[in-house]
């Protein structure tokens, strides 16, 4: 999504330089309202979207349940990463342990998001096995998403559980680490993926979009190491072993970052028996 906004903004700015009489950057040509959803929304995405509309909403929902939560964003500069607002009155939301659905996570701690529509029972047509896999015994839908509830009731959706990276005894969800890496000057976007490793299961690989060739992968690595060491102060805290530079990320048909394709390329480059260095740069296939 961030790539789409940035490319569109660059195109419109170029058109304005070439003398186009009107553009979306004129106040009366901005969208009346912009609705964001379909993937975790970061502050970077919000700031990019604010160029296209002064009225922005964030929504979280699913095909099986409909809309779950909404957030009216009054000031994009004050938006918190992954905030999807307060759940609607017609749904129940709970955050449970990813290994034990019977354990509800304390406020502020991440887990699997379960949702139940009040007064509505979900069932997949002519597919009882799929229905059983989708629903818990008490009728909650397993969204497959990872998130948490804040003290003021906001639902924070960090990403898909399938994006989790398993390293040794630890399971890492990439959303929060990607957010930290985006703070590095010159980093446009980042996708964290797991590369298979015969010893620890998976190693972390940070796939990067950088502003220019003046920004090096090594400078990003140094920033990340310093940021994690100074802010987390935990020698076991997750940090990427591998870094891979892309010219652009592959996108799905709905313009979401195609993590599986990114993971496949990272795996091809960094599988241990083929890797001779921790820092490589892609030839820009994508």
Characterise this structure.
27% of the residues are buried. This protein has two domains: 14-161, ANL, N-terminal domain (Rossmann fold, 3-Layer(aba) Sandwich); 164-271, 2-Layer Sandwich (GMP Synthetase, Chain A, domain 3). The chain is of the alpha+beta class and 286 residues long. The chain is built from six helices and 13 strands. A hairpin with a 2-residue loop joins strand 9 and strand 10. Mean pLDDT is 84; it is low at 274-286. Residues 26-117 form the AMP-dependent synthetase/ligase domain. It holds the Pfam family AMP-binding_C. Residues 178-256 form the AMP-binding enzyme C-terminal domain. This is AMP-dependent synthetase/ligase domain-containing protein.
Are there runs of 5+ residues with pLDDT below 50, and where? Answer: 274-286
Annotated CATH architecture of the largest domain = 3-Layer(aba) Sandwich
The CATH homologous superfamily of the largest domain corresponds to ANL, N-terminal domain
Structural domain tally: 2
β-strand amount? 25-35%
The averaged pLDDT comes out at 84
- Largest beta-sheet characterization: 4 strands, mixed
InterPro entries: AMP-bd_C, AMP-bd_C_sf, AMP-dep_synth/lig_dom, ANL_N_sf
Protein name: AMP-dependent synthetase/ligase domain-containing protein
Pfam family, one: AMP-binding_C
Domain AMP-dependent synthetase/ligase: 26-117
């Amino acid at each position: 999504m961030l790539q789409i906004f940035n490319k569109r903004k660059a195109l419109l700015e170029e058109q304005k330089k070439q003398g186009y009489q009107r553009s979306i950057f004129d106040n009366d040509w901005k969208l009346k309202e912009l609705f964001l959803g379909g993937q975790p929304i970061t502050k970077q995405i919000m700031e990019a979207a604010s160029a296209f509309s002064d009225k922005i909403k964030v929504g979280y929902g699913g095909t099986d349940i409909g809309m779950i939560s909404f957030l009216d964003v009054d000031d994009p500069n004050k938006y918190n990463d992954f905030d999807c607002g307060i759940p609607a009155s017609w749904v129940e939301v709970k955050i449970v342990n990813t290994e034990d659905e019977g354990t509800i996570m304390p406020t502020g701690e991440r887990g699997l998001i379960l949702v139940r529509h009040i007064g509505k029972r979900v069932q997949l047509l002519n597919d009882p096995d799929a229905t059983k896999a989708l629903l818990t015994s008490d009728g909650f839908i397993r969204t497959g998403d990872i998130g948490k509830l804040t003290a003021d009731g906001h639902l924070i959706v960090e990403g898909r559980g399938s994006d989790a990276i398993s390293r040794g005894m630890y399971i890492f969800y990439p959303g929060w680490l990607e957010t930290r890496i985006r703070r590095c000057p010159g980093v446009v976007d980042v996708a964290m993926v797991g590369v298979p490793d015969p010893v620890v299961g998976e190693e972390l690989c940070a796939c990067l979009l950088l502003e220019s060739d003046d920004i090096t992968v090594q400078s990003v690595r140094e920033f990340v190491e310093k940021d994690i060491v100074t802010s987390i102060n935990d020698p076991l805290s997750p940090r990427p072993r591998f870094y891979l530079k892309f010219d652009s990320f592959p996108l799905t048909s709905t313009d979401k970052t195609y993590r599986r394709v990114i993971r496949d390329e990272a795996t091809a480059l960094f599988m241990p028996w083929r890797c001779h260095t921790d820092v490589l740069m892609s030839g820009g296939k994508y």
